Amino acid sequence: MTKTLFTADLHLNHAAVISMCGRPFADVREMNEALIHAWNSRVRRGDTVWFLGDFAMKASPEECAAFFGRLNGIKHLVRGNHDAKRVLDLPWASQHDLVQTTVDGVRLVLCHYAMRSFPGVWRGSLHLFGHTHATLPPTRQSCDVGVDAWAYRPVTLDEIRDRLAGVDEEPEEIRLACTLDDEG
Predict the structure, then answer these.
(1) What is the pLDDT of residues 24-51, one digit of tens each?
(2) pTM for the whole structure
(3) CATH of residue 15
(4) Number of domains the chain contains
(5) What's the domain range around 112?
(6) Radius of gyration of the chain (CA)
C-alpha cells in the first residue's frame, strides 16, 4: 500500500545548517547520509512525498541530481527560498509555490512558508509548511513538517494529526474572528 508523506528543509550539502539548527552531525557528509537514510527508511518507491522547500545548498547541479536520485518516492516540490535552478531542474513530479490538495479526506494547504491565515481554515483545512526549522510552534491546524521538527525524516498525515491533536492553540485567523465576535 502506498502512502503520502511530507517533509521540508533538508538543506543537503549545507554545512552551516548543522550549527544554525543544532543538528547532531559531525559534518555535512554525515548529515547528507543520515538525511538520505532517514528519508529512505520511511519512503518506498511508489510513495508520494510532498517536499516543502529548501532541498540543497552549496551543492552543484550534479550533486543535487545525485542526492535526488538516491531518494525514494514520487517527489513533488513546493519551492522554498533556497531552491535555485540546480534544484528546480531536477525531475520533480510537479513544482508549485502553494498547493491546495486533499489527502485521505483532509484538505491541505502546502507552502514553504508559514501562513497566519490560509484557505479553508474555517473548514478544518490543515496548513503544512517548512522554513522555520522547528522554531515556530504549531497550532491545531498548522505545523512545520521540516526535518528539524520531525527527527530528520518525512512524516505521514496520521503522525501530523496525532501531534496537532495535542495542541490547544487555534490558528490566528480563528482567534481574531472570535475576538471580534466577542466585541460586537
Answers:
(1) 999 999 999 999 999 999 999 999 999 9
(2) 0.93
(3) 3.60.21.10
(4) 1
(5) 4-183
(6) 17
Mean pLDDT of the chain: 93
What are the DSSP calls for the chain, one per residue? ---EEEEB---BT-THHHHHTT---SSHHHHHHHHHHHHHHH--TT-EEEE-S--BSS--HHHHHHHHHHS-SEEEEE--TT--HHHHTS--SEEESEEEEEETTEEEEEESS--SS-TTGGGT-EEEE-SSTT-S--BTTEEE-BGGGTTTS-EEHHHHHHHHHT--PPPHHHHHHHHHHHH-
Res 180: pLDDT? 44
Q: In this predicted model, what pLDDT tens digit does every residue of 105-126 receive, in sequence order?
A: 999 999 999 998 889 988 899 9
Residue whose entry in the numeric block shows the C-alpha cell 502512502: 3
Q: Which residue has the cell 520533480?
A: 92
